[in-house]
Design brief:
single chain; alpha/beta; six-stranded parallel β-sheet; 10 helices
């Protein structure tokens, strides 16, 4: 985040002049949401914050991860710590908080902060892709060569590293952690079975006074990471189950904090696409192409406003653009809509 940074957060965790402010604002939103839910102003809250946080731990690259996975500060962990801190120290004095993380990656940072050793205040539950038998993103030839190459170019993409952030989510170190790796891809059947047979009994036994959701949507079937098979409707169902758990244990109190999810169709189209060099070098032809390209782009990409200039270079590989274009039909935004709609129904 600074000019003298040594880049120890990893190649995927960088920032701009506003990144730290955005991360701090995300923490502030989460703490305000805790106040609202515990204070009885509302039953549940969704915090649409960026950057995500569940890979951010006590130190950089927690639990031997190879990077910080886009994360700067951990809003979910901060919310849990604030909720359980004694009132004499400025907290709300709750006795038990459960964090349920359904991002496609294990939340190593949250586990590191709240549950590095057993702490009776916290139960951390993670449902994620992976498992002791899974070797990175190598799916045994079931995917295309393009898909495999794209996945292996991402952090944690090595054959023997396990899916990012590594092997830390393969097992549960003590009774305050329930890690449930769901295999190479997260399917609706697998996450549904886990919620009913493992998560619900554990949460009921723990009896939290607040449930915090680390709400990641990168297990969607069109997410470019390719590790999930869930539909937007499935995310609504996951949220329904979480809210039902909350009504049984804590009068419906749920705080949801946005984590991962990258299925947004926002790639600019190259101005010179499909044109021979001699046409590109001609001014009139090039101008016509630029105009036509902008018309196509206007109808084919998400409108990000003035923050993304139309003349900005967009160095996104063609295979990744093709993946993101699938999200016109259904992607990250539809997942968030189903999630928030479920919260509203239960609120």
């Amino acid at each position: 985040l600074t000019d003298d940074s040594e880049g120890e957060g990893g190649e995927d965790t960088m920032g701009s002049r506003g990144s730290y402010t955005a991360a701090v604002a995300g923490i502030a939103a989460a703490l305000q949401a805790v106040n609202m839910v515990v204070g009885g102003k509302c039953v549940n809250v969704f915090c649409a914050v960026r950057p995500p946080g569940h890979h951010a731990g006590r130190d950089l690259r927690p639990m031997n991860a190879i990077s910080n996975g886009f994360c700067l500060l951990n809003a979910a962990a901060c919310a849990a710590l604030y909720a359980t801190a004694p009132q004499s120290e400025g907290g709300l004095g709750l006795k038990r908080v459960c964090v349920i993380d359904f991002d496609v990656h294990h939340g190593n940072g949250t586990q590191d902060i709240l549950c590095s050793t057993h702490d009776s205040r916290f139960l951390y539950v993670s449902l994620h892709a992976g498992g002791a038998h899974i070797n990175g993103y190598d799916d045994g030839g079931n995917g295309s060569e393009t898909d495999d190459n794209l996945r292996r170019s991402l952090p944690g993409g090595g054959k023997n590293e396990g899916i990012f952030p590594g092997r830390c989510g393969d097992t549960s170190p003590h009774e305050g952690v329930l890690n449930i790796p769901l295999g190479q891809k997260v399917t609706a059947q697998a996450i549904g079975n886990a919620l009913v047979s493992q998560v619900s009994p554990a949460v009921e036994a723990f009896s939290p006074e607040l449930i915090v959701l680390s709400a990641g949507f990168d297990a969607h079937k069109h997410d470019p990471l390719g590790m999930g098979g869930l539909s937007a409707e499935d995310f609504g169902s996951v949220t329904d189950v979480a809210c039902q758990m909350a009504f049984k244990s804590c009068s419906g109190r749920v705080l949801s904090i946005l984590e991962g999810g990258y299925g947004v169709p926002c790639c600019h189209i190259r101005n010179d696409l499909f044109l021979p060099d001699n046409h590109i070098n001609g001014k009139d032809s090039a101008d016509q192409v630029v105009g036509a390209s902008k018309k196509v782009a206007a109808s084919n990409i998400l409108d990000l406003g003035d923050d993304l200039p139309t003349d900005m270079e967009d160095d996104v590989p063609i295979p990744l653009q093709q993946k993101l274009n699938r999200c016109h039909a259904e992607g990250f935004l539809e997942c968030v809509k189903e999630h928030v709609s479920s919260l509203a129904r239960h609120g």
